[in-house]
Amino acid sequence: MKPMVAVVGRPNVGKSTLFNQVTRSRDALVDDFPGVTRDRICGDALWNDIPFTLVDTGGFSGQLDDTFADSIRHQVFEALSAADAIIMLMDGRQGLSPYDRDIVDTLRDQAKPVFFAVNKIDGPEQEDRMADFFTLGIDKLYPLSAEHRFGLNDLLDDVVATFRRHTEPERDEIKLAVVGRPNVGKSSLLNRLVGAERHLVSAIPGTTRDAVDSLIKRDGRHYRLIDTAGIRRKGRVTHKLEKFSVLKALRSLDRCDVALIVIDAAEGITDQDVSVAGYAHERGCGCIFLINKWDLVAKDQHSARRFTDALRTAAKFLNFAPVLTLSALTGQRVQRIFKLVDNVYAQYVTRVNTGRINRILEQALADNEPSLHRGRRIKFFYATQAAKRPPTFIMFVNYPEAVHFSYQRFLINRLREGTGLHDTPIRLVLRPRSGRKEISPRAKRRARKGRKRKRSR
């Protein structure tokens, strides 16, 4: 694995800003409100041609009324134990805090390189703000402005100098985004899959704010699990941080291969569950419905079938997506997720031979001819697969706009039957045949009359 660098400090000292600057991303939420980051956030970074993983952590908080203080502290210590180097960030504007002293005392016991940086020093003329921090007895302090990148080069040069030059072979990852309404058990499910308390879990809706990645390896295959914030209806999202969290959750669907759509079995299928499924479908990723908290449902031998039928009725556009009932709390059927993911992903990246596609199209046309368009027959010339992730098929036809959506659905179903792509989304694109343009009889008559007038002149 790549070397890992953990960024620690008290709340609102600029850890997430530093994380975004070094990883050249916006993966960490940034706000003036303290305590925005709660989970550990990992990102890939490269400095002096040396790759490493940077970890943003929640702030050490001394507030007794902070509901998540103990959980955040546990996450920080987990990051420290896994890190190869540590960056402690302090606030040069607010000055030295008693909490800074507590963190420094904790880090003195770490048998790994620790780099102490004073943030919000925007230039050499402000370095006098660091005077109080020298009372900590630290040999070297780094003046830093994470926002403006002042002092960043010196800090990172020294950090990566502690690593041996490292090259990591490229690996094939399956990216899984866990999405759903707030408080349906997404983080609990991720912890069960990872096998550790990697994500904060609370009965309070909205605990998860960032889209948090976890990497695991199972049976020789790598999986990137992305925990996301709960997606509520737009009308109920009022806080700025929650809006950003929802946007990051939706963006995680753009970079995932398979979306694990978690539904609360105890509450049943809601309109918002269907909306979340719609977001995943629009982005073309593979989908699996996970019916969580199944241990809380009063069941008989037909309960699972009835729930699945109701889900198929509510989300008809995802009638191809597998459905699995489970319990993240007890672990019931959780490990079956990986088998479903492997199957969906294998279909998601499948490429089908052009000859096979055209034989399927030819048989479909023979069994059910398309309707007439203004008295003329709609002709399909040939088809090919243009892309995968998801499988995308292009069919060339004389009147693309005249093909009814129900006939397109018929063709997609025939493609599923003929190719075995039963569990992945399929995109169908209709285009006019290149190089030839169908001309209506009326236009042809006008052209003939125009040619006659030219000859008569």
The SSE order reads: EHEEHEHEEHEHEEHEHEHEHHEEEEHEH
- Class from secondary-structure proportions: alpha/beta
What percent strand? Answer: 15-25%
The total tally of domains equals: 3
Strand order of the largest sheet: 2-3-1-4-5-6
CATH architecture of the largest domain: 3-Layer(aba) Sandwich
**Gyration radius, in Å:** 28 Å
CATH class of the largest domain: Alpha Beta
Characterize the overall form: elongated
For this structure, what is the CATH homologous superfamily of the largest domain? P-loop containing nucleotide triphosphate hydrolases
Ends: how far apart?
Answer: 82 Å
Instruction: State the helicity in percent bands.
Output: 25-40%
Number of strands: 17
Q: Show unreliable segments.
A: 30-36, 199-210
Number of helices: 12
**Mean pLDDT metric:** 84
Reported by name, the CATH topology of the largest domain is Rossmann fold
Describe the sheet with the most strands: 6 strands, mixed
Question: Your description of this structure?
Answer:
It is a single chain. With 457 residues, the protein is α/β, with parallel strands linked by helices. 33% of the residues lie in helices and 21% in strands. It has helices at residues 15-23, 69-82, 98-107, 152-161, 186-194, 240-254, 271-282, 303-314, 336-348, 354-367, 405-419, 441-456; strands spanning 4-8, 41-47, 50-56, 85-91, 114-119, 141-143, 173-180, 212-218, 221-227, 258-264, 286-292, 323-325, 372-373, 376-377, 380-387, 392-397, 427-431. The strands form 4 sheets. It has a 6-stranded mixed beta sheet, sandwiched between helices. β13 (372-373) and β14 (376-377) form a beta hairpin. α10 packs across α11. The longest helix is centred in the last third of the chain and has 16 residues, at 441-456.
